[in-house]
Amino acid sequence: MQTAQKISALLGRVSAAAGRVLRQKKLPDTAFPIMIPPGVAGCNVCGYIAKTGHPRLCPGCGRNQRQRTFKQLFLARLQPEVFGDGPLNDGLLLSPGEVERALLVPRLRRYIVSSLYQTYYGVGPFVRADVRDLAPFADESFDYVQACNVLDYVPEIEQALRAVHRVLRPGGVFVFLIPEGNLLPGAEPVSVSVHASVTGDYWPDPADVPLVRVGRQRLTRLLQESGFQAEQVQLVDTLCRAKCTWWLCRRGEYTNAAHRTPGTLLNAFGQFDRQAAAGFYGLAQQTIARRLFGAVCQRFLAVRNFIGTKIFDRFFQFRVTL
Ligand SMILES: [Zn+2]
């Protein structure tokens, strides 16, 4: 009897350990727990409930799992956390779907619809823009940017993240989705293959659409490096049971001077290259800082050394590095 109990306890521990390992592989550390709204089944847009099977496109309204999980995200997180105090001033909707537009437009005082190839006639004020630079938009001109199924077509994902960061105001929100198939589990770098796609509307050559894959951890790091606080919200669609990861990001303060593109410099030069502008600004900032404060700081350090590091540091707990 004792032996049987021991074996059963051992099996329990082994299965718990296996469960932990499998769960870790399934969900990275940064992922939020999967949210399945209690008592909800079927399409959350039109109410259709499938008698058999799990259709991806809703037979009732034609919406896909991304649009349906966006509604989940909106109700569970965006409505209370982002739009809780009323509408935001300015939104940029990159290639927005119908459900996104229906939910977001009433929460934005002004909004612009944008894409590179598709025109979105009749759905709102449209400005054609490349997400890699978002050149038509000035720095810090939006409180909210949305991009569902956009970044998975952009091999220069890093550039796009910097561009979104640039046009967002501090504290602004960036919400995006990359399909699960394009998200690898670890820190895999951005890789690109070309495939034929049904999304001919979005791409000029439907047989030559870039398929961008990236690891979740790598994407999290790219977001952090671009100045975002990012969170993965994994949702399960209630009709087809597919998982969708929505990335909920807030623009923090600048962490790197190179990201800072001063508005005055850009205004002065119009289409001045932003990378060059950022580099120039960083260099100018360093040069001015060195010239103006270098001498003072050297004196300061000399005095500190003279008095004695230990005593001085006790009263002045900071360092000067130039
Ligand atoms: Zn439906």
Tell me what the structure shows.
The structure is a single chain. The radius of gyration is 25 Å and the shape is globular. The protein has helices at residues 2-26, 65-82, 98-104, 157-167, 216-225, 263-269, 274-307, 309-315; strands at residues 88-94, 108-115, 126-128, 142-148, 168-177, 183-184, 191-195, 209-215, 228-236, 243-251. Helix 2 (65-82) packs parallel to helix 3 (98-104) and helix 7 packs across helix 8. The termini are far apart. It is an alpha/beta fold. It has a seven-stranded mixed β-sheet with strand order 3-2-1-4-5-10-9, with helices on both faces. Residues 43, 45-46, 48, 58, 60-61, 63 line the site of zinc ion.
Condensed summary:
The chain is α/β, with parallel strands linked by helices and 322 residues long.
Q: Give the overall form.
A: globular
Termini separation comes to 72 Å
Low-confidence stretches: 23-32, 254-282, 315-322
CATH topology heading of the largest domain? Rossmann fold
What's the domain count?
A: 2
Would you report the number of β strands?
Answer: 10
Could you give the order of the helices and strands? Answer: HHEHEEEHEEEEHEEHHH
Give the strand order, joined by hyphens, for the main sheet. 3-2-1-4-5-10-9
- The CATH superfamily of the largest domain appears as Vaccinia Virus protein VP39
